[in-house]
Design brief:
- The protein is mainly α and 187 residues long.
- The chain has helices spanning 2-9, 12-34, 42-63, 68-100, 119-122, 124-127, 145-166, and strands spanning 139-140, 143-144.
- It has a domain at 1-98 and 146-170: Bromodomain-like, CATH 1.20.1550.
- α2 runs antiparallel to α3 (42-63).
- The radius of gyration is 22 Å and the shape is elongated.
Length: 187
């Protein structure tokens, strides 16, 4: 199994698939925001940024998947972006739980992005928070958007862990055993 995963990590299409999955996740978030009127909170914005990082990791790995530096850099960015996004998703799930149980909470005021990366100013339709954290305005199968992105992120994390472990495997066939009639192992 790990040799198959390692073999796949040496090809370009799985890395492009990772980028496409990240694009689909962010596209779903934008569809929920602009079509179904589910405004994002500041934690949602940070999660979007992390998912965008997963997409960048896919593109980085796709540049030269057979070159270990590119493949491992893609994996590092993938895992870093996932760590960031999962941290934010867990925080937001806890805020939703507190609000659901009748507590008064909200997210800290959005401080914005640094001036050298002012995504909220450059792309407000994607990166400007418009809701308070903890408020659930839309559900699917009884669960919030945050829950579903959390599930998707953990699926990506499991995949990243398998790809990371597989990097230690070799892709070469096992050495042939000499079973000719004249061969006798010493006893």
């Amino acid at each position: 199994m790990f040799q198959t995963i390692k073999s796949l990590s040496l090809q370009r299409w799985p890395w492009l698939l990772l980028a496409a999955v990240a694009l689909a996740l962010d596209g779903t978030a934008l569809t929920l925001q602009h079509v179904f009127n589910v405004p994002p909170c500041n934690e949602c914005i940070y999660i979007r940024l992390g998912v965008l990082g997963v997409g960048v990791a896919g593109l980085l790995g796709a540049l030269a998947p057979r070159v270990p530096a590119f493949r491992l850099a893609g994996l590092a960015v993938w895992m870093g972006a996932l760590g960031w996004s999962l941290y934010r998703a867990n925080l937001l799930l806890n805020l939703e739980r507190v609000v659901r149980e009748g507590g008064a909470t909200g997210c800290a005021r959005f401080k914005g992005f640094p001036s050298w990366l002012a995504l909220d100013a450059w792309l407000p339709a994607m990166f400007e928070p418009r809701a308070m954290c903890g408020d659930v305005s839309w559900t699917f199968l009884g669960q919030s958007v945050t829950f579903w992105i959390w599930v998707a992120l953990w699926c990506l994390a499991l995949t990243a862990a398998l790809v990371l472990v597989a990097q230690k495997m070799t892709v070469f066939p096992a050495p042939a055993v000499d079973d000719s009639p004249g061969f006798r192992p010493e006893r």
